Amino acid sequence: MSKLQDKVAVITGGVSGIGAATAKLFASEGAKLVLVDMNEEKGASFEAELKSQGAEAVFLKADVTSEVEVKNIFTTALDTFGKVDILFNNAGIGAVKPTEELSYAEWRKTVEVDLDGVFLVAQAAIKEFLKTGSGVIVNTASMYGWVGSPGSAAYNAAKAGVVNLTRSLGLEYAARNIRVNALCPGFIDTPILGEADRQGLTAATPMNRLGKPEEMAKAVLFMASDDSSFMTGNSLIIDGGYTAQ
Ligand SMILES: NC(=O)c1ccc[n+]([C@@H]2O[C@H](COP(=O)([O-])OP(=O)(O)OC[C@H]3O[C@@H](n4cnc5c(N)ncnc54)[C@H](O)[C@@H]3O)[C@@H](O)[C@H]2O)c1
């Protein structure tokens, strides 16, 4: 029996990296998908790719920092599939710059996407889940929600915010059948790494390699499915051993 048969999942940042790998795994487990992203070009081609493989998927261009566009995500999901069961709240941007050079606008942008956006989409999902009486949220934080690093103060602060937002929402809705957990990846080989020194990131990882998006997707599936039915307010750190050091 498929783990997500007939479930409807909204995936933000759903057309690239960890979100796209999760979309493929969710589809293979029977889920219907609403893929949300700013990247329209990738969105259209990924929707077509999934459909050609027999998946039920719709792409929606939306910015997770816009209240109006976030509301539209759930209107679209309800219009297309009639319900929402799962939110993978995963859209994010990276930001690396020495703190003394960081403008307030740059700080705000990172926190706006990586923390405020997670809040806005989670809140909209929770409003729907309260109507239907159940739901599951998986937020993407980072191992940098747990440990610090030089040169990415805004990102790290935002991701730590996501970890504690996850705890708080998990507790707030624990008795109302809405589970909220977080994925905390280490260095994963996706476009967000950009020009980062991949060799350096590999060497800094005890397993001496970067993680694969597909390895994240398996953890997301665990947290989004009934396999984790007694888990809420928690985080899974999957980082090749980085934070164990
Ligand atoms: N790759 C890593 O090493 C790593 C490590 C820890 C955490 N993460 C987190 O994982 C998540 C997914 O990142 P990824 O590695 O797959 O990178 P990615 O760049 O491949 O995917 C991120 C996606 O989010 C989308 N996005 C960005 N801002 C958005 C917005 N305002 N509204 C809607 N969509 C938006 C981008 O267009 C992109 O498609 C992010 O939250 C990231 O911070 C990644």
From TrEMBL:
GO terms for molecular function: oxidoreductase activity, acting on the CH-OH group of donors, NAD or NADP as acceptor. Pfam families: adh_short_C2. It comes from the Bacteria. SMART domains: PKS_KR. InterPro entries: KR_dom (IPR057326), NAD(P)-bd_dom_sf (IPR036291), Sc_DH/Rdtase_CS (IPR020904), SDR_fam (IPR002347). The keyword Oxidoreductase applies. PROSITE patterns: ADH_SHORT. Keywords: Oxidoreductase. GO terms for biological process: bile acid metabolic process. Residues 7-181 form the Ketoreductase domain. Belongs to the short-chain dehydrogenases/reductases (SDR) family. This is Short-chain dehydrogenase. The lineage of its organism: Bacteria, Bacillati, Bacillota, Bacilli, Bacillales.
